[in-house]
Amino acid sequence: MSDETGTPDTRPGSPAAPTGPRPEPLRFFGTTWVNHDNGYAARRAGVAAGSLAAAVASCLVLRLALDGLRIADTGSFVTLLVVVMFAVCSALAFGHTWGGFGKRPDPDRQASLRGLLAIGFVGSLLAYFFRSLTEAPGEKLHREEYETARKEYDRRSTRRSGNPSKKRRRQS
Fold first, then answer.
1. Beta bridge partners of residue 30, listed in sequence order
2. For 122-166, how does the pLDDT look when each residue is reduced to its tens digit (9 = 90+)?
3. Residue 68, CA distances (Å) to 8, 59, 64, 71, 120 in order
4. CB of 153 within 8 A of CB of 20?
5. Which of 112, 138, 164, 166 is 20 to 30 A off residue 3, Cα-Cα?
6. How far, in Å, CA of 127 to CA of 105, rounded?
7. Alpha-carbon distance 146 to 23, whole Å?
Protein backbone atom coordinates (compact mmCIF):
# COMPACT_ATOMS: atom_id res chain seq x y z
CA MET A 1 0.00 0.00 0.00
CA SER A 2 1.35 3.41 -0.88
CA ASP A 3 2.16 5.40 2.25
CA GLU A 4 1.27 8.79 0.80
CA THR A 5 -2.04 8.21 -0.93
CA GLY A 6 -3.47 5.13 0.74
CA THR A 7 -3.94 3.47 -2.66
CA PRO A 8 -2.98 -0.15 -3.30
CA ASP A 9 0.62 -0.63 -4.32
CA THR A 10 0.62 -2.32 -7.73
CA ARG A 11 4.35 -2.69 -8.26
CA PRO A 12 5.63 -6.18 -9.08
CA GLY A 13 6.53 -8.07 -5.93
CA SER A 14 4.29 -6.00 -3.67
CA PRO A 15 1.86 -7.85 -1.42
CA ALA A 16 -1.60 -8.37 -2.87
CA ALA A 17 -4.20 -5.76 -2.09
CA PRO A 18 -6.89 -6.89 0.34
CA THR A 19 -10.02 -8.09 -1.40
CA GLY A 20 -13.57 -7.43 -0.41
CA PRO A 21 -15.25 -4.50 1.28
CA ARG A 22 -13.20 -2.15 3.40
CA PRO A 23 -14.42 -0.70 6.69
CA GLU A 24 -15.47 2.93 6.65
CA PRO A 25 -13.29 5.08 8.92
CA LEU A 26 -14.89 6.89 11.84
CA ARG A 27 -13.94 10.39 12.96
CA PHE A 28 -11.12 10.25 15.56
CA PHE A 29 -10.94 6.44 15.27
CA GLY A 30 -10.10 5.63 11.66
CA THR A 31 -10.61 1.90 11.22
CA THR A 32 -9.43 0.94 14.72
CA TRP A 33 -13.06 0.22 15.62
CA VAL A 34 -13.00 -2.99 13.57
CA ASN A 35 -10.60 -4.93 15.80
CA HIS A 36 -10.38 -2.48 18.74
CA ASP A 37 -6.63 -2.14 18.20
CA ASN A 38 -4.02 0.63 17.86
CA GLY A 39 -5.11 2.60 20.92
CA TYR A 40 -8.85 2.24 20.47
CA ALA A 41 -9.55 2.39 24.23
CA ALA A 42 -7.32 5.44 24.68
CA ARG A 43 -9.02 7.16 21.76
CA ARG A 44 -12.44 6.44 23.23
CA ALA A 45 -11.36 7.85 26.58
CA GLY A 46 -9.91 10.90 24.83
CA VAL A 47 -13.06 11.48 22.81
CA ALA A 48 -15.22 11.13 25.93
CA ALA A 49 -13.05 13.55 27.91
CA GLY A 50 -12.79 15.98 25.01
CA SER A 51 -16.51 16.09 24.29
CA LEU A 52 -17.33 16.52 27.99
CA ALA A 53 -14.74 19.29 28.33
CA ALA A 54 -16.13 21.02 25.23
CA ALA A 55 -19.68 20.74 26.63
CA VAL A 56 -18.59 22.23 29.97
CA ALA A 57 -16.67 25.04 28.25
CA SER A 58 -19.64 25.84 26.01
CA CYS A 59 -21.95 25.94 29.03
CA LEU A 60 -19.59 28.47 30.61
CA VAL A 61 -19.71 30.57 27.44
CA LEU A 62 -23.52 30.41 27.48
CA ARG A 63 -23.44 31.48 31.11
CA LEU A 64 -21.37 34.54 30.15
CA ALA A 65 -23.89 35.32 27.41
CA LEU A 66 -26.73 35.18 29.94
CA ASP A 67 -24.79 37.45 32.28
CA GLY A 68 -24.44 39.85 29.36
CA LEU A 69 -28.19 39.82 28.87
CA ARG A 70 -28.72 40.57 32.55
CA ILE A 71 -26.18 43.40 32.46
CA ALA A 72 -27.92 44.83 29.38
CA ASP A 73 -31.12 44.80 31.42
CA THR A 74 -33.17 43.26 28.62
CA GLY A 75 -35.67 41.91 31.10
CA SER A 76 -36.46 38.53 32.50
CA PHE A 77 -38.71 37.58 29.59
CA VAL A 78 -35.87 37.78 27.04
CA THR A 79 -33.56 35.89 29.38
CA LEU A 80 -36.19 33.19 29.84
CA LEU A 81 -36.70 32.93 26.06
CA VAL A 82 -32.96 32.49 25.50
CA VAL A 83 -32.67 29.83 28.19
CA VAL A 84 -35.69 27.93 26.86
CA MET A 85 -34.41 28.21 23.28
CA PHE A 86 -31.01 26.73 24.18
CA ALA A 87 -32.59 24.01 26.34
CA VAL A 88 -35.08 22.92 23.67
CA CYS A 89 -32.54 23.08 20.85
CA SER A 90 -30.01 21.15 22.94
CA ALA A 91 -32.58 18.45 23.74
CA LEU A 92 -33.55 18.15 20.07
CA ALA A 93 -29.90 18.11 18.99
CA PHE A 94 -29.16 15.39 21.55
CA GLY A 95 -31.99 13.23 20.22
CA HIS A 96 -31.03 13.83 16.60
CA THR A 97 -27.34 13.10 17.23
CA TRP A 98 -28.13 10.01 19.31
CA GLY A 99 -30.47 8.70 16.61
CA GLY A 100 -27.80 9.33 13.98
CA PHE A 101 -25.55 6.79 15.68
CA GLY A 102 -28.05 4.02 14.89
CA LYS A 103 -29.09 4.85 11.32
CA ARG A 104 -27.86 6.96 8.46
CA PRO A 105 -29.37 10.45 8.62
CA ASP A 106 -31.32 11.79 5.67
CA PRO A 107 -29.15 14.46 3.97
CA ASP A 108 -32.12 16.75 3.24
CA ARG A 109 -33.34 16.59 6.84
CA GLN A 110 -29.79 17.10 8.07
CA ALA A 111 -29.49 20.26 5.97
CA SER A 112 -32.81 21.61 7.22
CA LEU A 113 -31.83 21.00 10.86
CA ARG A 114 -28.39 22.60 10.55
CA GLY A 115 -29.44 25.78 12.40
CA LEU A 116 -31.13 23.88 15.18
CA LEU A 117 -28.09 21.64 15.61
CA ALA A 118 -25.82 24.70 15.69
CA ILE A 119 -27.86 26.29 18.46
CA GLY A 120 -28.15 23.00 20.35
CA PHE A 121 -24.47 22.14 20.10
CA VAL A 122 -24.32 21.31 23.82
CA GLY A 123 -26.80 18.47 23.29
CA SER A 124 -24.75 17.10 20.39
CA LEU A 125 -21.59 17.20 22.51
CA LEU A 126 -23.33 15.40 25.36
CA ALA A 127 -24.67 12.72 23.01
CA TYR A 128 -21.15 12.22 21.70
CA PHE A 129 -19.86 11.94 25.29
CA PHE A 130 -22.45 9.39 26.42
CA ARG A 131 -22.04 7.24 23.30
CA SER A 132 -18.25 7.22 23.61
CA LEU A 133 -18.58 5.71 27.08
CA THR A 134 -19.79 2.44 25.53
CA GLU A 135 -18.42 2.46 21.96
CA ALA A 136 -17.00 4.70 19.28
CA PRO A 137 -19.85 6.99 18.19
CA GLY A 138 -21.36 5.35 15.12
CA GLU A 139 -19.50 2.06 15.60
CA LYS A 140 -22.62 -0.09 15.87
CA LEU A 141 -24.05 1.22 12.60
CA HIS A 142 -20.76 0.91 10.74
CA ARG A 143 -20.14 -2.58 12.15
CA GLU A 144 -23.57 -3.79 10.99
CA GLU A 145 -23.01 -2.35 7.52
CA TYR A 146 -19.48 -3.75 7.31
CA GLU A 147 -20.51 -7.24 8.45
CA THR A 148 -23.42 -7.26 6.00
CA ALA A 149 -21.07 -6.23 3.19
CA ARG A 150 -18.56 -8.93 4.23
CA LYS A 151 -21.26 -11.61 4.25
CA GLU A 152 -22.51 -10.51 0.82
CA TYR A 153 -18.98 -10.49 -0.55
CA ASP A 154 -18.21 -13.93 0.92
CA ARG A 155 -21.48 -15.30 -0.44
CA ARG A 156 -20.77 -13.92 -3.92
CA SER A 157 -17.13 -15.03 -3.98
CA THR A 158 -17.77 -18.60 -2.79
CA ARG A 159 -20.74 -19.24 -5.04
CA ARG A 160 -18.69 -20.81 -7.84
CA SER A 161 -16.68 -23.94 -7.34
CA GLY A 162 -14.36 -25.68 -9.74
CA ASN A 163 -13.40 -24.90 -13.28
CA PRO A 164 -16.45 -24.01 -15.40
CA SER A 165 -14.82 -25.36 -18.59
CA LYS A 166 -14.72 -28.87 -17.12
CA LYS A 167 -18.42 -28.83 -16.38
CA ARG A 168 -20.36 -31.76 -17.80
CA ARG A 169 -22.84 -30.86 -20.46
CA ARG A 170 -26.42 -32.03 -20.14
CA GLN A 171 -27.58 -34.66 -22.55
CA SER A 172 -30.95 -33.78 -24.11
1. 26
2. 999 999 999 999 988 888 888 888 899 989 888 887 766 666 666
3. 56, 14, 6, 5, 19
4. yes
5. 138
6. 15
7. 6
